[in-house]
Design goal:
By secondary structure, the protein is an all-alpha fold. It is built from six helices and no strands. Keywords: Membrane, Transmembrane, Transmembrane helix.
Amino acid sequence: MPYVLLILLAAVVGVILYNLLNVYLLRKININKWIVLGVSILVFFLPIVFSRFEFSPNIMSIVQSMLFVILLLWFFDLNSKGPIKKEKQINIKTKAKPNKLKTMPKDSIIINDTNKKGKNKK
């Protein structure tokens, strides 16, 4: 029973640690996502390499699991981002309609009053 509680505590600490690392460190590092996946797979098989050395198996397995989960979550985060594409902004420009005056009735055309006053004075 205490081992199960230790694993749950390590999982909570691992998620909190990943969130903190993601905010302050991991977002600033530009690295290929495949390198992160390779390192996480290497960390997954790390206990096989270190089985000859005498470490506390509980602590070593928990640290190894937390490191593997952090690297795997980082890989998923890098994989979900993908390449950043900038979208072109669309500028809508109004077109001049040259035939509009030809098709409008004569009554709806507004004539500038200053031109009329100038013609009347002559």
